[in-house]
Amino acid sequence: MTSKPDTLAPAGKTSGWRGSRDVWLDAAKQAIIDSGVDAVKIQPLANRLNIARTSFYWFFKDRGALLEALLDEWESKNTGAFVEACGAYAETISEAVLNLIVVFHDETLFESQLDFAVRGWAHQSDMVAARVHNADEARLSAIRAMFERFDFDKSEADVRSRTVYLTQIGYISMQLNESDAVRLERAPGYVKTFCGQSPSQSELARFYARLKYNPASQPR
Q1: What is the Rg, in whole angstroms, of the alpha carbon atoms belonging to the chain?
Q2: Is 212 left (phi over 0), alpha (psi -120 to 50) or beta?
Q3: 196 closest CA partner among 162, 152, 158
Q4: Which of 125, 138, 219, 129 is nearest to 179 (CA)?
Q5: pLDDT (0 to 100) of residue 33
Q6: For the residues 198-204, what does the mean pLDDT come to?
């Protein structure tokens, strides 16, 4: 009995000798971050991965399916991070805002470079632009609901949610190159600006611990 070439994976298999769906998707993500959506092409990705081009078709129907999966992952992860953070347990609005700010600083939760790349892609595609618009609305809605949970009226919650979100999108779109220490030292001021209430020392301590940051160890 003759076995299949090892460049092919059994039908329905999601990983194997010649890569996996996640391997192709991660390579596509890095390509769009590095060079834009035009760099997300099957043969260049195969070359990057040192995997036979034929492997691709075990995991995706075509390039369009790969791009759709890339958008789905961006939306699930980045928008999902906002929704989860805004709904997280908090005893005060300042603690709730700190929960959200954690997302801005933790690339395992929110990939800012991918967000920037997808926004660039949106300038080339009405479909992607619509997805970005919907994601922005979902994120704003989650932040607005967070403020309303702490008894801010709808109008004030709307303005404050936009202040929070547009500040972060400004950081992404301007590609500001600030150190984590600089941004984290500003966190208490941002919290007060965003919600009108300064965080307590215990809230700040928990916030810094989540990000593995020790203010006392920073040079003065």
Answers
A1: 21
A2: left
A3: 152
A4: 219
A5: 97
A6: 97
Higher pLDDT, 8 or 99: 99
Q: Kindly state the DSSP code that residue 150 receives in the 8-state scheme.
A: T
Are 42 and 86 a contacting pair, CB within 8 Å? no
Spatial neighbors of 86 by CB under 8 A, at least 6 apart, are 96, 99, 100, 142, 143, 145, 146
The whole-angstrom separation of Cα 103 and Cα 109 is: 6
CATH class, domain 14-60, is mainly alpha
Pair 203, 92: CB distance under 8 Å: yes
- 175 vs 33: CA distance, rounded Å: 13
Contact of 33 with 93, CB cutoff 8 Å: no
Q: What are the helix (H) ranges across 75-200?
A: 80-86, 93-105, 112-122, 126-149, 154-174, 180-185, 187-195
